[in-house]
Design a protein that fits this description.
Keywords: Pyridoxal phosphate. Pyridoxal 5'-phosphate (PLP)-binding protein, which is involved in PLP homeostasis. InterPro entries: Ala_racemase_N (IPR001608), PLP-binding_barrel (IPR029066), PyrdxlP_homeostasis (IPR011078). Pfam families: Ala_racemase_N (PF01168). Belongs to the pyridoxal phosphate-binding protein YggS/PROSC family. The structure is a single chain. Helices cover 40% and strands 17% of the residues. The N and C termini lie close together (7 Å). Helix 5 links the parallel strand 4 and strand 5. Helix 2 packs across helix 3. By secondary structure, the chain is α/β, with parallel strands linked by helices. It has one domain: TIM Barrel, CATH 3.20.20.10. The protein has nine helices and eight strands. Strands 7-6-5-4-3-2-1-8 form an eight-stranded parallel beta sheet. It binds pyridoxal-5'-phosphate (PLP). Pyridoxal-5'-phosphate binds next to strand 8 and helix 9.
């Protein structure tokens, strides 16, 4: 199936999820996760009108960047080793996986302009998942004030791999509550307006629970 056809289906599903939850589809940004696909397929996605691209490895991002350059807005969505920061920092607008001060320090050192970061939270508490425990998030974000290039755009989570709708909903709802708490702190470096949550199998539920960025790979660009 062509990317444009998949995009139309997803836009339709987003519109329906927004209607169910009284939200405006314009408030949802689709990030096409191109990590599994060829450069040709990424070019097709760009031509279909997708403006936001996500990659989870520095080498994958670099390869696609060589062809697409800054035509899309780039998001780094995966675990980021500090020593890899220098390879991606001049290419990305958003980093979705800020989860430790040492990484914040490196981003701050390498960035030439401010970087919009999502603080990754391990809401479900699964050991295999990266991210801060929900209880650590407030203090972590307060400590980020020392890094003048870091803007906390919002919070990010990966839900557990399950079809259990209640479990997914609970996970997304917890992140939304946490975001509201952080926003209320009114920290200049942490507007925390956004929620990066929802992937191919759970983006509809994530939108119903307040996602503003959905990161969609297989359902959108999968071959
Ligand atoms: C791969 C990946 C996605 C997209 O996954 P799909 O299930 O293919 O939609 C989203 N977020 C992160 C962090 C990923 O690594």
């Amino acid at each position: 199936m062509k990317v444009i056809e998949k995009l139309h289906l997803i836009q339709q599903e987003i519109a329906e999820a927004c209607a169910r939850s009284n939200r405006n589809p314009e408030d949802i940004t689709i990030v096409a996760v191109t990590k599994y696909v060829t450069i040709d397929r990424a070019v097709e996605a760009l031509e279909a009108g997708i403006q936001h691209f996500g990659e989870n490895r520095d080498d994958g991002l670099q390869k696609k960047w060589e062809v697409l350059k800054d035509k899309p807005t780039w998001h780094f969505i995966g675990t980021l080793q500090s020593r890899k920061v220098k390879n991606i920092i001049d290419k990305v607008t958003y980093i979705h996986s800020l989860d430790r001060l040492s990484l914040a320090k490196e981003i701050n050192k390498r960035a030439e302009q401010s970087v919009k970061c999502f603080v990754q939270v391990n809401v479900s508490g699964e050991e295999s998942k990266h991210g801060l425990d929900p209880g650590q998030v407030k203090e972590f974000i307060e400590q980020l004030a020392q890094f003048d290039k870091i803007i906390v755009a919002g919070l990010m989570t990966m839900a557990p791999l399950t079809d259990d709708e209640d479990m997914l909903r609970t996970c997304f709802r917890k992140l939304k509550h946490l975001q509201t708490e952080i926003k209320q702190l009114d920290l200049p470096h942490a507007p925390c307006e956004d929620l990066s949550m929802g992937m191919s199998n759970d983006f509809k539920i994530a939108i119903e629970e307040g996602a503003t960025f959905v990161r969609i790979g297989s359902a959108l660009v999968g071959e």
